[in-house]
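Example for tutorial group B:
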């Protein structure tokens, strides 16, 4: 392995960990109000499903466990969320507030293709 391959694999893990932590934050907000979720009352079933994907899927991505399939699910959920909640408010993501969820969709799509990087349980499972 070349030096650039070693570092790119490590930085892929850093991207995975950072994105997963930020993604989980959305799940804790919806499910536990930490930080406060801007919607009052009980969550509709679709938002509960999204919150579970954000929290559980985000945790699995954080650990690098089944990264590819879980990231694909998270990417799809983010894309659906963008088109359902943000796109109707305007064409440009900067206008409709959809930049974060759009980025999650593409980051997770990349992780679904590239894997979790050097530091993760998937790597340990492969070597065991």
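The residue assignment follows.
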């Amino acid at each position: 392995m070349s030096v650039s391959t070693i570092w790119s694999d490590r930085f892929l893990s850093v991207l995975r960990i950072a994105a997963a932590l930020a993604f989980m934050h959305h799940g804790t907000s919806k499910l536990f109000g930490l930080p406060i979720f801007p919607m009052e009352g009980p969550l509709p079933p679709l938002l509960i499903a999204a919150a579970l994907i954000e929290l559980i899927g985000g945790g699995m991505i954080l650990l690098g466990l089944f990264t590819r399939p879980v990231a694909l699910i998270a990417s799809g959920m983010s894309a659906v969320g963008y088109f359902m909640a943000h796109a109707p408010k305007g064409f440009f993501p900067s206008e409709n507030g959809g930049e974060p969820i759009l980025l999650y969709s593409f980051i997770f799509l990349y992780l679904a293709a590239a894997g979790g990087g050097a530091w993760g349980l998937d790597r340990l499972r492969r070597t065991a």
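The first helix runs from residue 3 to 32. Compare this with the pattern of hydrophobic and polar residues in the output above.
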